[in-house]
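=== Structure Prediction Worksheet ===
Name of assembly: unnamed complex
Input type: mixed (protein and possibly other molecules)
Chain count: two
Listed entries:
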Amino acid sequence: MPAISVDTFFACSLMVLLVLSAMAATSKLLYPYINNVIDSSLAERYREVSKYLLLNGGTPSNWGQNCRANPATFGLADADSDNPYALDIDKVSRLNSENLYAMSYAQIFTALKMSDVSFRIEIKPIFDVTINLTATFQLANETSYQFEILTQKNGIPIQVELKCYAIAEDFLETSYAYASNGESNFNITIPNDVGGPVLLVAFAKATYDPRIVSFGVYAFGHDSTSPKPKNTFLRLSPLNHSLTTSFVYSGINLSKVYALTVDYYSILEQTASSNQSATYNIPHFLDSSPTLLVATGWNSTVFFTEWTTYPQIPLQIGANFGTSTLSNVFAYTYVSSINSALYECTVWLGGPKE
Amino acid sequence: MNKQNRGQIRIIEAFLAVLVIFSSFAVSSNLTITQNVRKSGDLASVGLQALMTLDSDGSLGRFIDYRNWTAVRDSLDTVLPVSVCFNLTVYNDQMRQINEVNISNGALGGQEVASVEYTCASQSAMFRCYMIYLQLAVVE
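=== Predicted Assembly ===
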């Protein structure tokens, strides 16, 4: 083979290699930009869908209040409010699976009418309230409990005013505290003749904006066995300013049922009862606060306290995107109001990967 | 130039071409500016919604009326996501800056900054209008 042919072969090979490398490099360089364009348009679409969920009330506009109705189109906005991102207290409560009248994911998915969009909705207070029992002092006639309450948003302390309620058998005590650096210590003293367990409810209101409210609940034994987990004795379903208490056991006798907010509390009036359930009216309180509903009663010889909130938060409903690699998932966080109190609402949206 | 030298020149040419083109790729990849429009748009949307929420019951206008800059900063800090840092400037209707202290929860530094412009009307008996400029950035 002549030397020139070998030279030409090498030169051609190099040129082919060059062209292939150029093609590979070009596609590698352009891929993020092309992908970003697809992602941007998808993100924009999902952003509009998330806004639609929170700014539109659905049809009928009062589907939340009617426990027998499912919406024809889905939306969580409060039809009676002029403020954007104001959510309906009953529509939100019907997203919580603890509620007797909760909608399933399949029902919401059908009402949303977007077959290529999966979603997840989370609504929770803007900051967290953590209650820790730090010490117990038993005296002759009474017992004193020392608590530490932490108010934080992702570890950052929030300056708050605290209002605490301690509820036991025929016993309700309130106390106030102030947490300037997101931490407060206070004592509760309960007479020994009061039957336990005791439920401690702590409302925390941001000092500079009373609409930013959160709460924490802590149950502890007082001259009694440890409290049972939530929903052991009753299923509480607040809807349309009415509380339905469904009995888990047949031998349950309800005593007092309380409605608590930051500034007010009330003992609820029973409106109907049967051997399976009882119904109570929930008053319309004026302050910007979730209403904490506490039911006390007896299961044969065991005293219990059960609680829920109205709106029934925190809640999570929808698809689990945690380990999904098959879909593009986008999350959008909004500050929403329910009855003037502010909450954090996160909407995750995803669909098939393009 | 004889035939053998012509072949060698072609190889040298090819090597030079490879060098030129690969060096151009190397240089151009460093020159490209990554623009994440979506991130900036999201951030502006989050900032605008935070200001609207604080203003929905007149709190924002009231804080500015009373020059309570700590309340403005703390309210925004609570409402905005934890990973977002901000810097807020308030102007009166004559476009004079009225916040004498810095309303910020951290330096915006070298991050990509989104800006939001918001008009806030005070709900007090005397009508006052404020222009609010909010700059936001995600803490990396």
